[in-house]
Amino acid sequence: SVLTQLMADGKQVDQVSCPDLPATVGASQRCTLQAGGDTYGVTVTVTSVQGTDVKFDIQVDNTPTTTPSR
Length: 70
Fold this sequence. Notes:
10% of the residues lie in helices and 46% in strands. With 70 residues, it is mainly beta.
């Protein structure tokens, strides 16, 4: 999953919301990621598919789309 891959890369992620992405190389869509109270946009692209093992390229936006008031 996208969340599993982000966490494996050492990212501190609370939640990822991503509609079903077809397991087709090159398929891409926008998702949202929540981390530490901030919400970021994420672009997820399928890079490889081997049976049920799907790998993604995940690009997290540099700035949050929402930041809680502090």
